Amino acid sequence: MTKSVIQPLESYRLAQYAVPVPCYICGSENTFDSEFCAHCLAPLALAHQASSQGVMPRMIAVIGASAVGKTVYLGMLMDMLSRLPDRLQILARGAFSITLQQTTLSALSRCRFPEKTPNDPDQWNWVHCQIRDGSKRESFELILPDMAGEAVLQEVEHPHSYRVVREFLRKCDGVLLLVDALKIAEGGRGQEHFTMKLISYFSELEKNTKHGWQEQPVAIVFTKSDLCQECADDPANFAQNHAVGLWQQCEQRFNRFRFFATGVAGTCVSCEQRGEGRVNIPLRIEPHGIIEPFEWLLQNTLV
Amino acid sequence: MGTTKCKNTARHNKPFWPRWIYFATGIAAIWGGRVIANDLLMLAGCIILVWAFCLMIRSDRRACSDCGKHNWLETPDDPAEEDEAARPLAACEHEKAEGVDDYEALIDQMVDQSRYALLLRPQIVSSMTRVLFDQVVHSLDVAMALVPDGEVLLSQSDQTSSDVPSYYDAPVDVPGRTVRVQRFFLDRYPVTNRQYYEFVAAGGYEQVTLWEESVLPAMLDFVDRTGHAGPRYWKNGCYLKDKENQPVVGICWYEALAYAGWVGKRLPTDAEWVKAGCWPVTISTTGRFQRRYPWGEMVDRNRANLWGSGPDKIVDVDKFEEGVSVGGVYQLIGNVWEWTNDDFRPEQILPENATLDVPLKSIHGGAYDTYFDNQATCQFQSGESALARRHNIGLRLAIGVCDLALASAPAAAPETQESSPPSAADEENLAAKDIVTSGDDGSEDVIAEEVSV
Q: Is B222 in contact with B205 (CB distance < 8 Å)?
């Protein structure tokens, strides 16, 4: 005996599968229902957002060594912009764009730093937002990923190990290069060497066949400057005195760069915690110099 | 770009070529007008040319201080280049008016220096005339607010405004500790630059007896931007222009302590500071109503100078009148943090079992750049190194009622003044210090012990 069953013919799904969705970062083709790009692990939500908006977002990279403060800077920047509508207005595209802000601010409000960003690109927080200049009423779309410092280092040391890093840096319109002012002030050269490697890496990517990275704006941001008064007073002078190699690299490779100093924690203490070793605790949150580098970068990106 | 020796390379980064566009446009218009024989176009070209020239002249063209290269430098907004105020005449530099005896002149001078608390010590009051006594008490009444005795709850974890997801660290849950404080006076306003200037001008930094012995080696660092003794952000031993009535900042805990000793007061304890702000009301043996902010339970950004609510800088001490406490104390929340006498107790902030490498001193109240509302409550305590001279930490002073001889006023004005005026050494010794003792029941009593002259 046979039993007749009505089986819906979802041929439209086949049609959707037939149309590939190009990843916005690396351009590789993916199926329409993939969450992450199969090739670079960037979220395909970026591609969907871009296609639905009908505009091509600009991209700005926030990079630096591990534990330099990329997550804190980015999360704080997003939150401050959302609270200061007169200066720059920000409108998050997609719920995923608010996750970074939420986790960072939740931690900081309780005097904790957010947890370390995992190395796996599919666990990174991406921000896709619309930025509107409060006075000029110009708006544009922007993508900012919170990339793990160790992943960036891995890509610099072993190119093509993290495709998403390479592809993003190749396409981005400007770079916020974060450097730990405290480690520089302490005399350690590791931070400076890593930053020089990073500059060397991305400035040699084939962004523009004629000029390379020479004409791209680069903001070198000294983080944790609240604990280093010399840096907070004059970051350019601080770089010239304490990070000469970095200074020379910038002079030789970029036409548009500027040094900034930023800080989020008013005071930070390092304490021994049983079971976890040494942990850094911010005793209060007093952000300084967060928006300025971003603002400068936008102005120079738009030129 | 400038040479590699130039400090101002970042400023040189400003594009130079757009400034020539105006000239080019003017010349092009003149040339075009001449070619097509259009006088109007030529006239427009001339106007553009003149305007461009004026614009260039007005611009801030000058030689770079480092590389000597002429370039279009942006106007620096470094606060270090702000003008310093015309040096005011300190009270100790005033000439004595005719017909006023030395004793009265000294009293006036001490009142002008905000050192009235010294004059209200029992040893001094007994030798004062009624008129002078009333004058000094009036000064005290204007400058300080009375906070009644009672219990206050401290170190209570404040999680009400924090929406912490469960996957994050467990919230710091510290049971509150009850502290009993005696009646005391608290400054209505934070100590201003002008008030602190009196201390500097009177040689406060040279009076070794005012300073703790352990900090003497560090005193060479207690200088301003120009190397003179004084708060960190001053110049030439004086505060900057238009900052006379702003709270003094850039002083470490030891400088605050020395100033307090000089004016005959002391730094408030944590319990006293919180009590003045929270103004607790005990409604039963177990129940107590204690507010989070001096004005109530909810943060109101119109009442305090916090991040995003004020002009993003320190304001005068008498601003934000709506944020006054029940007892009439201004700016307990916002504008600048305030040093207190106690050590920073890390239980509220630090994870359990965590230990600090170096002891910190406690600060309260939040500042103009405090970002989170829950870090600007009366209960919230932060810490800072005792030697730190931060841009947003000032001070406010207190004195116990039991330290003052307010009840033993002189009966009548004597014809002649027989007793000698207080000497400088007496004044220094008159500083009172508080001793906090812990009771068996876990509560703490703040009792004042006066050091005999």
A: yes
- Residue B345 is predicted with a pLDDT of 80
- Separation of first and last alpha carbons in chain B: 67
Question: Which residue would you say has higher pLDDT here, B157 or B447?
Answer: B157
Mutation to test the B interface, candidates A87, A284, A292, A301, most B Cβ within 10 Å: A284
3-state secondary structure of A273: strand
Which of B9, B167, B339 would you mutate first to test chain A, the one with the most A CBs within 10 A? B9
* pLDDT tens figures, B116-167: 999 999 888 888 888 889 999 999 999 999 999 998 988 655 444 444 333 3
Averaged confidence pLDDT in chain B: 78
Number of separate helices (H) and strands (E) present in chain B: 11, 16
Would you state the pLDDT for residue A137?
A: 67
Establish how many alpha carbons lie within 13 A of residue B183's alpha carbon, considering only the half-sphere containing its beta carbon.
8
What's the pLDDT score for residue A144?
Answer: 92
Q: Does A278 touch chain B (CB under 8 A)?
A: no
Choose from B155, B348, B372 for mutation: most chain A CBs within 10 A.
B372
Nearest CA in chain A to B313: A288
Q: Is A46 on the interface with B (CB under 8 A)?
A: no
Which H/E stretch holds residue B376? none
Using the structure block, give the residue that is written with the tokens 């942990």: A279
- The whole-number pLDDT of residue B307 equals 92
Structure pTM? 0.78
Q: Please answer yes or no on whether B8 and A236 come within 8 Å at the CB atom.
A: yes
Sign for the CA dihedral angle at B258, B263, B265, B267 comes to negative
State how far the alpha carbon of A284 is from the alpha carbons of A207, A263, B278, B337, B372, in Å: 41, 11, 20, 11, 9
Using the beta-carbon criterion (under 8 Å), do B308 and A84 form an inter-chain contact?
yes
Q: Which residue is listed with tokens 């934000």?
A: B320
Whole-angstrom Cα Rg for chain B: 29
Checking if the pLDDT of B44 tops 60, the result is: yes
- For residue B10, give how far its alpha carbon lies from the nearest alpha carbon of chain A (Å): 5
Q: E strands, B183-336, where?
A: 184-187, 281-282, 288-289
Q: Cα(B434)–Cα(B428) distance, rounded to whole angstroms?
A: 16
ipTM of the complex: 0.86
In this predicted structure, what is the pLDDT of residue B447?
Answer: 34
pLDDT at A240 over 70: yes
Q: Which of B15, B369, B382 sits opposite A283 (nearest CB)?
A: B382
Strands (E), chain A: 21-22, 29-30, 58-64, 88-92, 125-133, 139-146, 174-180, 218-223, 257-261, 263-273, 277-288
For residue B7, give the nearest of A109, A237, A303 by CB distance.
A237
Strand partners, A176: A62, A219
Banded model confidence at residue B57, pLDDT cuts 50, 70, 90: low
Mean pLDDT over B254-258 rounds to: 96
Dihedrals phi, psi of A175, to nearest 5 degrees: -130, 135
Q: Cα B172 to the chain's mean position, in Å?
A: 30
User: Nearest Cβ partner of A110 from B164, B357, B384?
Assistant: B164
Cβ contact, residue pair B372, A109, below 8 Å: yes
> What band does B90 get if pLDDT is binned at 50, 70 and 90?
confident
The answer on pLDDT for B402 being more than 50 is yes
CB contact under 8 Å between A285 and B384, yes or no, is no
Residue of B nearest to A280 (CA): B350
- Is A128 in contact with A45 (CB distance < 8 Å)? yes
Q: Angle, nearest 10°, between helix axes A149-157 and A190-203?
A: 60
Chain A residues inside the 8 Å CB shell of B169? 110, 112
Q: Is A228 helix (H, G, I), strand (E, B) or coil?
A: coil
Contact (CB<8Å) A266/B382 = yes
